[in-house]
Each structure stands twice: as structure tokens, then as C-alpha cells.
Fold:
Amino acid sequence: MKLKALLVDDEINILKNLQAVVPWEELGIEVAGTAKNGEIALELAKEMKPDLILCDIRMPVMDGIEFLGALREFDTEAEVIMMTGYQDFSYVRSVIRYEVRDYILKPIDYEELAGTIGRLAEGIRERQAERQSIQKEWRQVFRLAYEKVLYDLLIDVGGGSSRPFLKLHEMSGDNLAFAMLLADVEEYSRKECLWDEKERKLWNFAIHNVLLENLQAFEVPHSVLQVRSGEWCVLIERIPPETFDLEQCLSWAAKLRQAVGSFLKMNIRVALHPAPVTMERLAKTYKHLQRSLHLGERLDGGLLVPDRPKGHPDETQRLWDRIEEMVTGLKRCDRRKIESALKELNDSFRRLPETSFERIEPILHYVCLHLLREMRAMDVIGREDEMRYWSQIDRSPGIRETLALINRLVDQSIDSVMKKKTSDVLMLSAKDYIERNLSSDLSIDMLADYLGISGSYFSLLFKQHFGETFVEYVTKQRMEMAKSLLALSDKSVTVVGQMVGYAERRYFTRVFSKHTGMLPSEYREKAHQRPEEPILSGWTDKENG
Structure:
């Protein structure tokens, strides 16, 4: 991007010489305007916002010093070179307070002037690059903080204010609401059971990025929150809430579902809440969509728009509440809460009339799937145990047998959770956070703040738990993901680098080469020579630049 220069002098010949002799094109600068006095220059500066100004001191109407004083009232960034035929120090001294970068004596030495302009231009570009970098970092921190607030509200962790103090593009008080979509991979529990850890991470990462890429095309402020493996909550800001359009949201949902199917050959189901959702209703609406998605009747095309939750909870709602209390208790290692919820769940089933069993059986079946999925997310069940439970679920047991299966699952979860140390739970949360934010800027302070511990304590626990430093671990995870993306997709090297957290291709290439011993392009070429079936074939760039 070229810099803009403004030339100010009352001598027309000097203005012509400045335009003709100084190698502006070579210096990457465009002469955006010229003026014969400070008054004209002031109007041009307001309009053009030049990066560099060459200005004479002695001019009619408004001289250079007056011009500088007026300029600095609205522009403190432009670099200024003063030109004067007077060597009187009083003139030089009078412009110092206006942050003049340099001054040139007349008659002008154009070679010297070109060198001065070149040095100033280089400094301007460096500052602009640094400013853009800082702005980018702040935007990233802002987004992560914003999404952290939304995530906490969504899973109802408690302890925080629900006031929407952060938004993607503006502050608008209580006027903020969302269109909420819940996307879930069809038959995910079974797929996850068959995948190894690398495949699971890669599929989740790929789906998350396809959702993000296609949401950006909608040009609306949005967040994609991965609540658990294989499940994403998409929140699209609607300000004011009256801008919510159900047909538009259905179109968005259909396009997201089609994109995942087209690029990844993976089917997802999408549930859409039929009305705007306020911050205070995020958690309840999320749970309602989750239940509806697994138990409700689907619309054509894998889309579901469930009815709004009823005002008064029925017996089914109370069963769900007990189930959620169990899951919450597991996550918080609260044995009393788990056992209390399980007892109430069993009592509720005993009180149900015989006519309710047909309606309750699919709920019980889903409870098993829900618990298995949560146990996998919390790392409290092994692959063999999970396969054993799946074989029992596949036999379609009745109400009594399914209830007994739920009790065994909860008992095993309690034992596994209670055996875990507090530090293990913290590091499991850290691992999950890193996995969900691999493409974002990550730091020790950010993770420590997320977990509510000090940075030094986090670093100590991390090294003890993973056997390597935080930076080493994150770099390795990013490189492993990059290797998979290079081998299994047609994304360009630049895009792959950005997807795993490296904005600059050169830096990504340097880190990748150090980690693997070869360039990303070399790794891709070598990987494509292997007779393997790419598990992400079809996930390609429309423009593979």
C-alpha cells in the first residue's frame, strides 16, 4: 500500500520540481495533492489524511508555522519536513513543538531530500505495521474474551455477570440478541468410538473451520462455540432483536449443513431456535435445542425448528433436569449432587404410569448416549469400556435394563472422576481449550486466566502433566494439525498456516521446517505419494492460491 504525500509551497517551480525530481514511485509514495499556502493545505490534509507533508515556512495567507499548529489539532500522526530558505534558528525552534521530523534548506539538495523522505517512509511503514499487529492482537483478545463470556453463559458455569459488556462490533446494552443454531454430527457417538485421537481432532477441526469460513460469507457478526466434541453452537448477533428473520436463519442453517456435506462428506443435523435469544436465555435455549435435536422430529434436509420451551415443566422436563444435574455434578466432581440427582431420576421413573414408558424409552436411550459422550469429553471412560456399553445399547434393552445401564455408567463416572486430582481436571480443561482455539493466539496468561490460577502455577502444572512446556506442546499440536491438513486437503500453504495459528506464511514455513525437517510444500508432495485414502478429500479451496 502506497503512502500519501502533500506538498506545500507558494513557489510553483519548487512544487513542480518536487513532483518531478523526487523518485516518489520508487519510494512507494503517491503525491496526493499540492497547495500554495497553509490554508489550502489544511483543507487538503483534512480530506486526504496524508502520511507525509513537505511544507515551506514562509508563505502568504497562512504560513507553515500557523499551518502546523492547526494541523496538529486534528492530525498528530503525519510526518512533516519543513523547507526554508532562512537559517535563522528562531524559525527552526518555533516548529520543534509541532513534532517536525526534519527540515531542508533552500536551495534544495534533492538527493539529500530523497534520502530523508526514504528514511521517514520506512519509519512510517514500520509504525503502521506495528499498529496493525497490535490491533490484530487486541481484536483476537477481544474476540476470545467475548466468546469466553458466551461459552460460560451457554454452559451455565455461574459466577459471572450476564450483562453483555462485550460484542463483536458495538456496545448496545440490553438490545443484543442472537439467532441460535446447534449443529451436531449425525451418529457422532458411534463415529467417535471408532476414530483414534488424531482422526477425532482432525474431523472436529475441519468441521469447525468449514462453519467459520461459510459464516464469514454471510457478513454478519457471529461466534462458533464448540460446546463438546462433534457439537457446535452458532450464535449470530441480531441487533436490534427485531432484525431476526426465521426464513433467513433457515437459509443460513441449510447453507452451513450443505457446506459441511459438500466439503467433508459428513452429515450434520442443525436445530434452529424459532426466535431471537437473549444473553440470559442462552443456557436454557441451548439445552432445549440439544434435547430437541436428538428426540424431536426432523424437518426435510436435516433441519429442525423445535417449538419454544413450555412455560411449566412436565414430567419429561423434570427428568431432563435430573440428567443435567448428574452431568453438572460429574464436571464439578460433586459426588453428593450426582448421587442425589440419580436417586431422584430413579424415583421419577418408578412414579411414571405404564402408559408413559413408550414415550420415555427413547429419552432413556438418549441419556445413555449423552452420558457416554460427556464421559468421553471428560476422559473418564476408556475405549474398551465404551465399546462394551455400546454393545449393550445396541441390543435395545427395555426400560428397566436401560435404567440399570445408566446407573452403572454414573457409578463408573463417579469413581473415575473422584480418582482424578484437581490438577488433572485443570489440565484436561487446558487441553480442551487449546484444542478448541488452536487457530487463535494462545498464551500462558490467557489459559491461566481461563482456569482461574496464576501463570506460574499453570506453567508448573502443565510441564508436570504433559512433560513439555506450554509453547512446545502448542507448537507440536499445531504442527501435527498442519501435517494432516497438508496431506489430506487442498488448502494452500498460506491458508493452512493461518488455520493453525500462524498469520505469516514465512514464519509458519520456518516453524514447520524446524519441526519436520522439510518445507510444507515438500511434505505435501511426499504425503500425496502415499497410497492412502484421504479422510478429508473434498475439503478444498475454491481458489487454491
User: Anything to note?
Assistant: The chain has a mean pLDDT of 80. The domain at 161-189+199-283+292-308 is CATH 3.30.70.270 (Alpha-Beta Plaits). The chain has four domains: 3-130, 161-189+199-283+292-308, 310-420, 423-528. The two ends are 20 Å apart (CA to CA).
